[in-house]
Design brief:
By secondary structure, this protein is α/β, with parallel strands linked by helices. It folds into 2 domains: about 5-90 and about 210-265, 3-Layer(aba) Sandwich (Rossmann fold), CATH 3.40.50.1860; about 95-205, Rossmann fold (3-Layer(aba) Sandwich), CATH 3.40.50.1860. Helices cover about 40% and strands about 20% of the residues. α2 (about 45-60) packs across α3. The protein is globular.
Length: about 270
């Protein structure tokens, strides 16, 4: 049985973890949230690349066999960087989103993403390779409080609807026919998106990811999940209860300098 590693800067990648667990074809997984540096979407590219390299090295020490970058920002700015550094299979959530285009029949697609994902130009570049006639419009949702609210476990209500509409309005003015949830926090509010924009085809990369990774051939009886964070472990445990309705133990890792070898782990910290 192979062990998967999934990482993000915060809770967003839990949408990917949830999709994998629901297949019942994954036996062991480590989820790593770099909460000390959430959000990645406003961080410099070189910082993101070095940071996620450290995370992969941590995964290797934990005997992870395959890695999922459950963060659009890291996927768009560091995927090629990581592929050149490591030989283990590494999957990009951006590639997952692209696989979902097969269910889209329109010609005007919007992408709601982080600032760094927008600046990378990855979605227009990759989508044009699939369909040169497609018109792609990317909008950042990093500037307002939307992602921060989701990070706190708020996934519905007036604030979410208001901030979502602010992010979506520029895309709606482009007469888009579909939307790619280009940040893994957004699937948590997909019911709100579907309610408010029922005519849009919604592509959710956190669900599409199961189409591009290699799962076990048979269903497993028990799944082991280990959760690691770099800050705010108690808050993260509370959010796990809110968003996934689980009470998994969250362990904090302290990295004292940039090298992964200099971390010390606070093991089995429980509420």
């Amino acid at each position: 049985m192979k062990k998967f590693g999934i990482f993000d800067s915060g809770v967003g990648g839990l949408t990917v973890l949830k999709s994998l667990i629901e297949t019942n074809k994954i036996s062991e997984v480590i989820y790593f949230a770099d909460t000390k540096y959430f959000p990645y979407g406003i961080k410099p590219v070189d910082f993101i690349q070095k940071r996620v390299e450290e995370i992969i090295n941590f995964f290797l020490k934990e005997e992870v066999k395959e890695v999922i970058i459950a963060c659009n920002t890291a996927s768009s700015t560091a995927y090629d960087y990581l592929k050149n550094k490591f030989s283990i299979p590494i999957y990009s959530i951006v590639n997952s989103a692209l696989s979902g285009l097969s269910k889209f029949n329109g010609k005007r697609i919007g992408v709601l993403a982080t600032r760094r994902t927008l600046e990378s130009g990855i979605y227009p570049l990759m989508i044009k390779k699939i369909d040169p006639q497609m018109e792609i419009f990317v909008e950042s949702c990093s500037e307002g409080p939307l992602l921060g609210k989701i990070e706190e476990g708020v996934i519905e209500g007036e604030v979410i609807e208001r901030e979502l509409h602010k992010c979506m309005l520029p895309l709606l003015k482009k007469n888009i026919e579909g939307i790619i949830l280009g940040c893994t926090h957004l699937p948590f509010i997909s019911p709100v998106i579907r309610k408010n924009y029922p005519n849009l085809t919604i592509i959710d990369p956190s669900q599409e990811i199961i189409n591009i990774i290699k799962l076990e051939n048979e269903k497993v009886e028990e799944i082991r999940v280990d959760i690691f964070v770099t800050d705010k472990e108690l808050e993260f445990q509370d959010i796990l209860k809110k968003l996934l309705k689980v009470n998994w133990n969250v362990k904090k890792i302290d990295w004292e300098r940039s090298e992964v070898g200099a971390f010390k782990r606070e093991i089995d910290k429980k509420i």
